[in-house]
Amino acid sequence: MAERVLLDEGPVPARAASGTPRPGELSAALGARLAARGWRLPSVGDIGGRGRTVDLVVFNPDADAARSVAVTLAPVDPDADPPALPDPVDVAPGTRVAIPLDDAVAAAAGDAVVLADGPVVVERVVRAADGRRVSAQAAIPMASGAVTLDTGS
After folding, report:
1. Pairing label, strands 133-138, 140-141
2. How far apart are CA 28 and CA 46, in angstroms?
3. pLDDT value of residue 1
4. What CATH number does the domain located at 34-148 have?
């Protein structure tokens, strides 16, 4: 099983119990064994506080073909106008792009759905207002168009 390890090299926080600022923080998450054309992120904006940013990170595992990616966002309040949608992006072969959602868009968004014209891998990374990483979460692949990634083992 693949995994992802993230080192937070943002500003050193001064909130350590000992009074000594802590160095960067390390977090780990399971990696993906599947790529899919569609991914769902439930409650995309529920983590963090004021001033946070939410990045939807899209990786294209294909070695040859670029992928076009679009994001749809459902509003938290069904009677509210839908949140502003990020522009569609192209992801070059073997690369990743981060699609940022600012605090207002993330707060108004319920679920996010990422759709691509070929298999991709998607996760969410949330950062606090000071730029430090708060969390990383894999998205949920939609069964239609899902393929198993070659992990080399």
Report:
1. unpaired
2. 20
3. 33
4. 2.60.290.11
